């Protein structure tokens, strides 16, 4: 039995453009796991002594915290939103399984919360909130592990 390590699932953010994406490894983050936030329909039928619950949707987000690193393109993109209180800013993130190279792409809204936490490093935190469905595909990760390319799966008929 082999357990996945946290570092086996890595997030990369597009620091380029939609036309010419550059997926850059999201380094320096102390949190960044996905929360699904399942939407549920709960009911109790009059002939039963228990409730039933059905998942009817999701509202995924990625809570983030990072120690700001000078010259880090991912950090600079997020810090710009924080410091300038920008509205409606989005980003593209792929989450890559570094063992299989399976990848999931999604666009997220950047929702800043705090800046300046920490006494040793200047930390920022907030949430990336899903802005649409995820797309499954594969990733090609550079040999140094710092950038990746995403290829969506071809739908089967």
Bin the strand percentage.
over 45%
- The outline comes out as globular
Q: Helix coverage percent of residues?
A: under 10%
Global mean pLDDT: 94
Which residue ranges are poorly predicted, with pLDDT under 50 across at least 5 consecutive positions? none
Give, in order, the helices and strands.
EEEEEEHEEEEE
Which CATH class applies here?
Mainly Beta
CATH T-level topology: Elongation Factor Tu (Ef-tu), domain 3
Kindly name the structural category.
Answer: mainly beta
Second rung of CATH, namely the architecture? Beta Barrel
> Separation of termini?
35 Å
What profile does the largest beta sheet have?
6 strands, antiparallel, barrel
Number of domains: 1
Number of helices: 1
- Count of distinct strands: 11
Radius of gyration: 18 Å
Task: Describe how the helices and strands are arranged.
Elements: E1 9-14, E2 23-25, E3 29-31, E4 38-43, E5 52-58, E6 61-67, H1 73-84, E7 90-97, E8 102-117, E9 123-130, E10 135-141, E11 147-152
Antiparallel strand pairs: 1-2, 1-7, 2-11, 3-6, 4-5, 6-9, 7-8, 8-9, 8-10, 10-11
